[in-house]
Structures are given as structure tokens and as C-alpha cells.
Known about the structure:
Blueprint: E1 3-8, H1 20-23, H2 28-42, E2 45-50, H3 54-63, E3 70-74, H4 83-92, E4 96-100, E5 122-125, H5 129-143, H6 145-204, H7 211-223, H8 230-257
Parallel strand pairs: 1-2, 1-3, 3-4, 4-5
The structure holds 1,3,4-trihydroxy-5-OXO-cyclohexanecarboxylic acid (DQA).
The site of 1,3,4-trihydroxy-5-OXO-cyclohexanecarboxylic acid (DQA) has 10 residues, from loops.
Amino acid sequence: MKKILIMNGPNLSMLGKRDPKHYGSGTLQDLENACISKGIELGVEVVCFQSESESAIIRKLHTSMGVIDGIVLNAGAYTHYSIAIRDAIELIKIPVVEVHLSDIHNREDFRNRSVIEAVCVEQISGLGVKSYLVAMEKLVNQYMVRNDGEDALCGAQEAAKESEASGLLSEERVAIDAIDKEMLVLFERRMKHVDRIAKIKMKVGKETYAPSREQEILDKAAKGVDQDYAEAAQELMRELMRLSKERQSQIRNVSNED
Ligand code: DQA
């Protein structure tokens, strides 16, 4: 789920006690609750943050990287002079909508100028709490859609990769099944030779595999395959010899019982 950060700067914690002509009568909590409800409607998670301090706001902007998808920022009076906040917004590469409860263009001259406007995707001012709600809609519908699109694209690419991989896997499994079938035929042929050898050795009273013969088989195994598989091939031959020995002693035991 996408995350939107609602950031409020200095003196916005005092909403409800500030001039209602500009800021209305609601508290910061009312404002944040309205944003949280809007978040539910838009299907995004809402995180709220307020600070009186420029450095805390900057730090919060920094730590939003990789965590937050869009920011609604009312920087309060910092709007008009904090180049440091401007620089932080610029570097985080997260869409930030600048908002104001009051209409900063129809108040004192010093409020007309926003130093953060150029690095924000939009400025919405003078709509009261609605400034925040419109900002959230814009983030979701205009500025965060690119990310959604990328996510969707990634999802489609992932699905295509998965289906290609599962196609390739099933081809490989079919090939392995065919090889196993051949190997079992060879295994059976080998075991039949083992049976015959066991009987011949019994006739002449000889032991089963001699250690030198075992080593010879292991050397051939290592040389008979690509170096990468040499150890595994020796392991396989050891196992085959173990099965052969087991088979030979079974045959001996059966004939001794007779
Ligand atoms: C404000 C406008 C700023 O000029 C002022 O300093 C604020 C609030 C607003 O929301 O209207 O603190 O950002």
C-alpha cells in the first residue's frame, strides 16, 4: 500500500488557538483525522508528522526516502524563507505538494513568496483543511500513478519471467525423465553383470571387488565426465559399487543357504 506523509511545520500544532479567520477553528488532530479518513477513501496509508523545528522537518524529509510515496507539506512560516527545507525537498525525489490553510497570496506581502514552490509538484492554498485533501487526491491520481504504473509493469514482467521459467523447467524435467529411464535400463544391465560376476567368483572362491578394481572404477568416473562433475561422478560410482557388493553378498548368502 502506498504511503502519504502529512507534514505540518511550526505553529500548526496550535490550530484551534490561531486566528480562525485564516485557519478555521479545528485542531491539528481534527485536520490529521480528516487526512486519515481521506487516506482510507483513497486506499493509501497516512502517516502524520508535526514539528516546530526546521531541522526535525529536514530530517523527516530525509528519512522518508524509500519509505514514503508522497508528501503533503505545510511548512508554515518556513515556506517563506527556508532554503534548507527547499533543498531537502529537492533532493528526496518524492512528490511533495505544498499546502496552506490560508490564501498566502491574499495576505501580507511577505507571505506571497514561497521558496519551496519551485521544488514542489503543486501549491494548494486557501482551501482550509480541503487544501490537504485535494493535495492527497492529486498525489494519488497524478503524482504517484507513475509508481503504480511501474509496480504494475514490474508485476507483469515478473509474471512473464515466472511463466517463461516454468516452461523451461518443465522442458528440463521431461529431458531428465527420459535420461532417468535410460539410466535405469543401464542400471539393470549392470546389475545383471554383477549377478553373473558373483556366480563366477563363487565358483572359483574369489572375493567380490578388489580394492584396486574399485579405485580403477573411481578414476574412470572422474575422467569420464566434465571436471565440474568429477566428484559427483565418483560419488555415484561408489554408491553403485556399494549396491553391487550388497547384491553379491545376497547371492552368496542365498547359495550358501541352498
Ligand atoms: C500557513 C501560512 C503561513 O504563512 C503561516 O506562517 C502559517 C500557516 C497556512 O497554512 O496558511 O503558519 O502555512
